[in-house]
Amino acid sequence: MIRRATADDVDSYLRVAGYSYSFPESYTDMARERFIDSYDEHYVVEEKERVVALARVLPLEQNVRGVWKKMGGVAMVASTPEHRRQGHVRDMIMKMMADIQRSDYAVSCLYPFKDSFYMRVGYVKMPPLGVLELNPSNIVNRSMPEGYSVMMVDPAEGKEPWTSVHSRVVTAAHGGVRRSQKRWDELTKYMKSKMAIAYGPDMTPEGVVVYGIRGYGEGYDWAETGRISVREILWSNLQARNALLTFLYLHADQVVKVSIPVDPRADDYYHWISGVHNPTLTSRIVHMSRVIDVQQAFEGIPVNEEGEVVLSVEDPCLTSNTGTYLFTGVGGKLSVTRSDKRPSAQVTIEGLTALLYGTLSLEQMASMGWLSGEVQGPLMDWLPRAVPWLTEDF
Predict the structure, then answer these.
(1) Distance of CA 219 to CAs 155, 193, 224, 386, Å?
(2) CB–CB of 308/326 below 8 Å?
(3) Do residues 201 and 154 lie in contact, with contact meaning Cβ atoms separated by under 8 Å?
(4) CA-closest candidate to residue 38, choices 185, 163, 218
(5) Given this model, what pLDDT does residue 370 score?
(6) Mean pLDDT score, 95-123
(7) Superfamily of segment(s) 130-283
C-alpha cells in the first residue's frame, strides 16, 4: 500500500532512510526533527503493515525559460534491501507523479540514485553542476573591488540578505529554483555551515557564500588537511563574485584546498585562478527533469515569433499527457491546447522535456528514439538550445 506519511512514521523513516543513506548516530535527532517538520511531503510504501520504502516530494517553483512553474523536487528515495527490485519504489514514484499532476504541477526534478531507473519513468538527464578544486593561494582576486566588503554573519542574521541575493540570481537563471518560506525555514533552522555576505558600495547585499571549514594547513600531525567546502555561492554581478573569491583567497594561510560549485553555464572559471596548468573541474551528480503536465509546462513560455506546431505526444507513465497538441505562438507567448489536427511529428515525453529545457537538438532527440517525423514550424526558434541550472540541492 502506498500512502502519504504521518508524523507517526518517524521511526520507520529513521529505520529505512537511516539505513539507505547511512545516517551517522549524531544525525539521528536532527533527522527525526526534520521529518516531523516535513512529514506531509513524504510518501511511504507499506507491506504487511511495515514501511519498506519512502520518498519525499518538495513543493518548489522553477524558472523555466523565464516563467515560474510549479516543480516537484523528488528526494530521500529509500527502501530496505530485502524489498528492493520488487517495484515498490517505481510504484511510489508513479503515484507521486500522478498526485502532483492533479495539483497542477508542471515539471519535476531530482538527483538520481541510478539514472537508468528514472529514465524508465520519463525523466531526462540534465547538465551537471561542476566543482572547481583549488588551492586558495592560486586565486587571482587578492584584493576587494573598490567599495565592496565581505562580512561573516551568523546564518540567522544572514537569512535576509541571503534570500535577497538568492531571489535575484534564480530569477535570472533558466532552471533556477525559488524556495518557499517553509524551505527557507528548514535550511536555516538546521544549518551547520558558515556564511559570508558580499556588500556593494551602498551596503546592498550582492553575493553570498555558504561553506564548511575544517582542518589546518597541511602536514601537521595534530590536524587534518585544511579544507573549505563551499555549499552555495551566489552573486548578482562580477564585482560581488570577485569579492567572494577574495574572501576565499584570504584563507590561503589556513587551508590548502577549496571546492567551489560552478554552475553549468560558467565559461570563465579558469580565469579565477593562476599558476595552474590543469584546473581540476569535476562534475557533481547529474540531475534529471521531467514534464509532468504538457500544457502547464509550456503555457506562457516567451516566444519570438508567431506560428503553430502540431505534435503527437506519448507518455506511457502519465497517460493523461498522451495525445495531440497544438502549440501556438501568439502575442509573444506560447499557448498549448489539445487538437484534432494532423501532427507533423511524434515526440515522447522525454523528447518534450529535452525541448522544454533546451538540452538536445532535434537531431539528437531523433537519434535517441524520442522524435519521429518532421517538425514543421518555428519550434526550435521558440525553444532554442539552453543550459538549465538547477540551483537547489535536495
Answers:
(1) 32, 25, 8, 45
(2) yes
(3) no
(4) 185
(5) 98
(6) 97
(7) Gcn5-related N-acetyltransferase (GNAT) (3.40.630.30)
231 band by pLDDT with thresholds 50, 70 and 90: very high
pLDDT per residue as tens digits for the range 168-205: 999 999 999 999 999 999 999 999 999 999 999 999 99
The Cα–Cα gap between 264 and 143 comes to 27
Read off φ and ψ for residue 289, nearest 5 degrees: -130, 160
Q: Are 256 and 226 spatial neighbours (Cβ–Cβ below 8 Å)?
A: yes
Contact in structure between 235 and 165 (CB atoms under 8 Å): yes
Residue ranges matching CATH 3.30.1050.10 in the chain: 294-382
Cell of 89: 519504489
CATH of 294-382, one of 3.30.1050.10, 3.30.420.150, 2.40.40.10, 3.10.350.10: 3.30.1050.10
At 199, is the secondary structure helix, strand, or coil?
A: strand
Residue with C-alpha cell 505534435?
A: 311
Q: What pLDDT sits at residue 376?
A: 82
pLDDT value at position 284?
87
What distance, in Å, lies between the first and last C-alpha atoms of the chain? 26
Over the Cα atoms of the chain, what is R_g? 23
pLDDT at 134 over 90: yes
**If you search the block for the grid coordinates 558600495, which residue do you land on?**
201
**Which is the CATH superfamily of the domain at 2-105?**
Gcn5-related N-acetyltransferase (GNAT) (3.40.630.30)
Burial of 89 (0-12, 13-18, 19+ CB in 10 A): buried
**Closest by Cα among 282, 291, 57, 353 to 180:** 57
Residue 162 reports pLDDT greater than 90 = yes
Residue closest to 27 by CA, chosen among 14, 37, 12, 36: 14
Give tens-digit pLDDT for 366-394: 999 999 998 888 999 999 999 999 999 99
Task: Give kind and range of the element (H or E) at residue 280.
Answer: strand 280-283
- DSSP annotation of 139 reads B
Average pLDDT over residues 301-308: 95
pLDDT (tens digit, 9 = 90+) per residue, 251-293? 999 999 999 999 999 989 999 999 998 888 999 889 999 999 9
C-alpha cell at 73: 523536487
Per the CB < 8 A criterion, the answer to whether 304 and 381 are in contact is yes
C-alpha cell at 267: 565559461
